[in-house]
Amino acid sequence: MHTHCLLHNMLLALCTRALVDDGNDGFIVTCRIAVNFSMQLTHIIRETRYLDRMSFTIPEYALNVTLQEDRYLQCVDGLIDMLERYYKVQSYCVL
Fold it and tell me: In the chain, how many domains are there?
């Protein structure tokens, strides 16, 4: 369970700044939380899987990440959905 929470914290670490129209011909800078997951990791996982099938020696760390691919992708998808719902609700609560 602790590792699961740690994974979520790492994936939510990125905060992006965006200019948002304030409705009065001006803009305000907002800070939004975004999912911090590099798509390069999915490419590395795929390459590791192919190299393993061809009987290449794979570093243990890369193999462990590849074996947990479903878990990573499930966490990323869940966090993206959660953030979309959060910002949708937050947009209705603007004072």
Answer: 1
